[in-house]
Amino acid sequence: MDDDSAELDVLVVGGGPAGTAAALRAAGLGARVALVEARRTGGTCVNTGCVPTRVLARTARLVREVRQAGDYGIAVTEQPVDWARTVARVRETVERVQAAKAEQEALAAAGVDLVLEGRARFTGPHEVELEATGRRLRARSVVLAVGGHSRRLPVPGAELAVLPEEVLDLPAVPRRLAVVGAGNTGAQLVTVFDALGSEVTLLEVAPRILAQTDADVSAAVQQAFVEQGVRVRTGVSGITSLERDGEGVRLTWTEGAHDGGGERSEVFDVVITSTGWPASLEGLGLEAAGVEHTARGVPVDEHLRTNVQHVYAVGDVNQESMLVQAAHREAEDAAVNAVLGPRRSRRHELLPAGGFTDPDYADVGLTEAQARERDPGCVVALVPFAAMERPVIDDRTRGFLKLVADSRREQLLGAHAVGESAVEVVQAVTTAMAAGVDVATLARVEYAYPTYTAVVGAAARQLLASAPTGYEHVTQG
Ligand SMILES: Cc1cc2nc3c(=O)[nH]c(=O)nc-3n(C[C@H](O)[C@H](O)[C@H](O)COP(=O)(O)OP(=O)(O)OC[C@H]3O[C@@H](n4cnc5c(N)ncnc54)[C@H](O)[C@@H]3O)c2cc1C
Ligand SMILES: NC(=O)c1ccc[n+]([C@@H]2O[C@H](COP(=O)([O-])OP(=O)(O)OC[C@H]3O[C@@H](n4cnc5c(N)ncnc54)[C@H](O)[C@@H]3O)[C@@H](O)[C@H]2O)c1
């Protein structure tokens, strides 16, 4: 269904990482492009998600460093955290990142018409209306990049919970905190508030925290949380209700079968629910465009098209790989498809990701369990950070790198790390995987001494060795 009367070739709805990348790519191909953003460019990532979370993670890390300073002869009396100052620092950083990215300037330079007239709503398959002005825009193709939002639990009193994007509005660091949901968001908030002095309880319905990660990663982060004094309850049957109780919130949940299955109720100063991230479809008028969707998001085909062939959906809205790096790739591919016709069908083959907890964790490729399903003879090497010199020097020995390779010990299938610089270590492996570097070559690469990344060479050598899980022979350099 083409529309030759449209004034635009491509209309992009949403100015987060996905929308901005799509608009810039489409304009770069010579298309007439408009980008409609309801609030502010940068989207969840810059304004409420990755950037604020990363500053809070750094705050938590600084608290840990200060506590350890005495070991190095630096006398530091631990000071209470000034939460208002922390929040101010987060907000200042968001502005600095906004300035560094200069997206509005980049869009203008590329000839993209940035339209900040409120939310867009479809009025037909090729047309949207803008909430603030009532203006209508028509385009031959539309790229939906509206992202997602936190979900409120469907239980009585759910509105008493604080959502992750509301954390900066808390008046103070809570003394008793419950975090419900141990995905990437919940796990990171646990580390932040534990470091800032909260007594944290973490509740998760899945049998383990960070359920999408490799089982060893999940177990290692959970063990660290428990040692740090966090109460971790996994496999809970569900949250029953939240109700006001004095100054606090009474949270009632049903324990999992392995904890007796009974109902349990406790009062917390704050309850944060980080229990999922459905697409932001409300008020979008998808029915007017004939675009089908589920309760979570908008499904797409291999060319990132919805059921309506000129409407694409990229980034969090399609609910496939909800990460910035995925949003960028999908957006660029969809832009090419929208302007030149469907030709890009590449999916994410290597999508590294990580979380800034204490300790950090990261992964790329197949988990050990996924690899074993495909290739029962696959080989696994796991090198603990305690066997490497740099982590020992820095007193950061918690963690490991696990590499998974095919049964012939040639091709890397996955990398999973926990510990200091885990995300950077996994990124190094990702680069090798993307370049098609085989295990033997990776084992021969020189690693600067002493680095965290040297664990990659040690793990590759272990993969080649016959004793797959022996750590004794691991040497550095
Ligand atoms: C707490 C948190 C931490 C995170 N940390 C990381 C991290 O460290 N690394 C990582 O890779 N990912 C991280 N993510 C995920 C990352 O933020 C998302 O994957 C990414 O922002 C998705 O980009 P997007 O463009 O699809 O959506 P968004 O960034 O959500 O952008 C969507 C945009 O669309 C606009 N919009 C919505 N509806 C309309 C409408 N009807 N009309 C006009 N505009 C509209 C919104 O205002 C918004 O600006 C984090 C997420 C959260 C919640
Ligand atoms: N560092 C990063 O890369 C980063 C950080 C934060 C978020 N993100 C991305 O943003 C998206 C949203 O992340 P998220 O963590 O908010 O959501 P999520 O969907 O990834 O995790 C939600 C968790 O809540 C649990 N849950 C659901 N209902 C529950 C209930 N009633 N009681 C207890 N637990 C319950 C789920 O089992 C799950 O573990 C994800 O795709 C994530 O990858 C990435």
From TrEMBL:
Claim: NADP is one of the keywords in the record: yes
Annotated EC: 1.-.-.-
Domain FAD/NAD(P)-binding, first and last residues per copy: 9-331
Pyridine nucleotide-disulphide oxidoreductase dimerisation domain segment(s): 352-456
Keywords: Disulfide bond, FAD, Flavoprotein, NADP, Oxidoreductase, Redox-active center
Cofactor: FAD
Single annotated GO MF: oxidoreductase activity
EC category name: oxidoreductase
InterPro entries: Ala_DH/PNT_CS2 (IPR008143), FAD/NAD-bd_sf (IPR036188), FAD/NAD-binding_dom (IPR023753), FAD/NAD-linked_Rdtase_dimer_sf (IPR016156), Pyr_nuc-diS_OxRdtase (IPR001100), Pyr_nucl-diS_OxRdtase_dimer (IPR004099), Pyr_OxRdtase_I_AS (IPR012999)
SUPFAM superfamilies listed in its UniProt record: FAD/NAD(P)-binding domain, FAD/NAD-linked reductases, dimerisation (C-terminal) domain
Protein family per UniProt: Belongs to the class-I pyridine nucleotide-disulfide oxidoreductase family.
Full protein name: NAD(P)/FAD-dependent oxidoreductase
Organism: Pseudokineococcus basanitobsidens
